Amino acid sequence: MVIAGIFFFLFGMVIGSFLNVCITRIPENVSIILPGSRCPKCGTAIRLYDNVPVFAWIWLGGKCRACGAPISVMYPLVELATGLLFVAAFLEYGITQAGVKWLFFTCLIVVLTITDLRVRLLPDLVTWPGFAVGLMFSWVVPPREGFAGALGWRFFHRHLQGHLAGLLDGILGAAFGSFLLWGLAAGYKLVRKREGMGMGDVKMMAMVGAFVGLRGTFWTILLGSLLGSAIGLSVVVTLYLAGWHRELAERGSRRGLGAVNTLRWTIASQYQLPLGTFLGIGALAIVYLGPLVTSQWPATGGILG
Predict the structure, then answer these.
(1) Could you please report the per-residue DSSP string of 187-214?
(2) In this predicted model, what pLDDT tens digit does every residue of 98-150 receive, in sequence order?
(3) Angle at which helices 97-119 and 275-296 pack, to 10 degrees?
(4) CA 13, CA 20: separation in Å to the nearest integer?
(5) pLDDT score at 161
(6) Are the CB atoms for 82 and 14 separated by under 8 Å?
């Protein structure tokens, strides 16, 4: 177990290095294959021994060997996080088809989560292929207690089992997640007269639902929304207390737009956090903490089905 865990950790860090390439290149419509890794500042190709996950960043002091430009801490953090998630997948699901399924899912979520955090974008190049792969895995690795089985008995008086139940559960999860977010986005725009959520979040939840099914999609949206709301409110309060854009509020107050503190709060409350990032965190929590919660509280009925 220890040796296997170390292997999954090291393998996960290597995969994390590739995910960094996807995170930085896909939004720029650049090939993730060619050219090879190079410094974004000076364009110098990175040597093989300077491309070792995590450790290379440490011994280079977080700087390019050629030009001394700083290397973002994002790179080692993504590699380290991916390694730890691979270990979690091994410990929770073992070397099984389910383990492979959730490793694929983890890679997709890491790319989407960090890309949305960096550039506020959830690329179609990730979400649509991920949706197709998710449905395929739902067919191959059906949930133990998927919601589709209950629906089959309710409407057709027969229990749907096996691959068909898994595929239907993935389709239901994708439909529920995407249409729910689409409806919320449309309602927000109708009330506030401005965009509050991009279609990227809708497509991301279609992909997530295809993997985790209807029940997992519900918990993902609930957990991601609660997490996003809590952190969002904390960020707004922090920006307000730190005097963010105070000069702008003072200019607005001199023009008769309102009190300075009122304008400061209004400006701080306009700061937007990427919803996709929190949905991604919620999805990973459901996959890796859901089975633990179910084992401790069986009444939950299986968060992932």
Answers:
(1) HHHHHHSS--S-HHHHHHHHHHHHHHHH
(2) 999 999 999 999 999 999 999 999 999 999 999 999 999 999 998 766 666 56
(3) 150
(4) 10
(5) 65
(6) no
Structural domain includes residue 90: yes
- Using omega within 30 degrees of 0 as the cis cutoff, is the peptide bond preceding 35 cis? yes
pLDDT tens digits, one per residue of 164-219? 888 989 999 999 999 999 998 888 778 877 776 779 999 999 999 999 999 999 99
CA distance 8 to 11: 5
At position 25, the amino acid (one-letter code) is R
Q: Is residue 84 part of a domain?
A: yes
Domain that holds residue 85: 1-95
30/24 Cα distance (integer angstroms): 9
Question: Distance (Å, rounded) from C-alpha 126 to C-alpha 112?
Answer: 7
CA distances from 12 to 89, 103, 181, 202 (A): 10, 9, 31, 28
Amino acid at 268: A
Start-to-end Cα distance in the chain: 27
Q: What is the pLDDT of residue 135?
A: 96
Residue 254 lies in a domain: no
Of the candidate ranges 13-17, 141-145, 297-301, the one whose mean pLDDT is the lowest: 297-301
Q: What is the pTM of this model?
A: 0.90
- Longest CA span, the chain: 71
Helix axes 199-241, 147-156, angle to 10 degrees: 130
